Amino acid sequence: MNPVLQVTDLVKRYRGGTVANDGLSLEVLEAEVYGLLGPNGAGKTTLVSQLLGLKKPTSGSIVLDGVDVVADPGFARRSCGFLPQGQTTMDDIHVDEFIEHIALLRGLSSREARERTNSLIAELQLDEFRHTGLRSTSGGVRRLTGYAAAAVAPVRLLVLDEPTNDIDPIRRQLLWRSIDRQRDTGTTVLLVTHNLVEAERFIDRLAIIDRGRIVREGTPASLRAVVTDRLRLEVTTANGGYAPHPALTPEPGRSLQYLFDSGELSAVSAWLTRLRAEGTVLDFRIGPPTL
To answer: What is the pLDDT of residues 76-122, one digit of tens each?
Structure first.
């Protein structure tokens, strides 16, 4: 397969000397789902901002579909669909209107925009919210609406930053199936996630980023082979304290971070989901141990 995206020796250095991306290189192939995994502050969001032409790198190159987007950032914005990590601020518009307006802005005809909007609303089971203002919907519905707007028009690269945030487990599966269909129809997807376990069966390849560098890259299976059978959990609790579970062993010197046997994944996930529903746990991330 041909690469849709090529990033070579990318460096982003801010005033004061902070280096967000430090000689980062990667290739994303046509019609693949490529994952970016890493802790907060690893440089994932900065990388995405440069890929979309929203920030200019200090050095290095970014080539999208054969075009140098450092020299032509507008090409990246025209060629990519983007779901940012935050929620949309267009609170007063209805769900279907928001998706359809984005489709029109992306160049679809009125008929095409309406048909594509209806298709995504059905695919994501959003019909009951079709005529509801975004202000009155849950965070999960707003997130799915944002995804639909990003995916409503044909693009060369669909960039999704933490797409499952705020979405309940049932609707998460609808979202993953929709992402899978995007790949099947030839769309290339770049997916930023903190939860490798959840996304693993949909990701073709992934890069693990730490301190602005790619420390590991490969298929999920190949990376599992080098990190043993342990998984790493980061928990954010409402009171800032520990949330112990029999399967968890605190990682020395790191508060609210744990290692556990992969065989305990189902039990730990069920326990965390219950605690998050109760409000005890605000957020959690499961992925491979630190490499």
So the answer is: 999 999 999 887 667 789 999 999 999 999 999 999 999 999 999 99
* In a shared domain, residues 190 and 245: no
User: What is the rounded distance in angstroms from the CA atom of residue 27 to the CA atom of residue 38?
Assistant: 17
Which pTM does this prediction carry? 0.79
Do the Cβ atoms of 36 and 190 come closer than 8 Å? yes
Number of domains in the chain: 2
Mean pLDDT for the stretch of residues 237-244: 57
Structure confidence at residue 291 (pLDDT): 39
| CA pair distance 155, 150, nearest whole angstrom | 9
- Domain residues for 78? 3-223
Tell me which of 223, 251, 271 is where a domain ends.
223
Cα dihedral sign for 189, 191, 197, 198? negative
Out of 174, 198, 223, pick the residue that ends a domain.
Answer: 223
Contact of 162 with 253, CB cutoff 8 Å: no
* Cα separations in angstroms, 111 against 52, 101, 114, 199: 28, 12, 5, 34
Are residues 84 and 173 both part of a single domain?
yes
Residue with tokens 């529903």: 277
Amino acid present at 98 = F
Residues 167 and 202 in one domain: yes
Q: Locate the DSSP E strands across 78-223.
A: 80-83, 157-161, 188-193, 205-210, 213-218
More reliable by pLDDT, 66 or 200: 66
Give the span between the Cα atoms of 165 and 89, in whole angstroms: 16
pLDDT category, 254, cuts 50, 70, 90? very low
Chain-centroid distance, C-alpha 64: 19
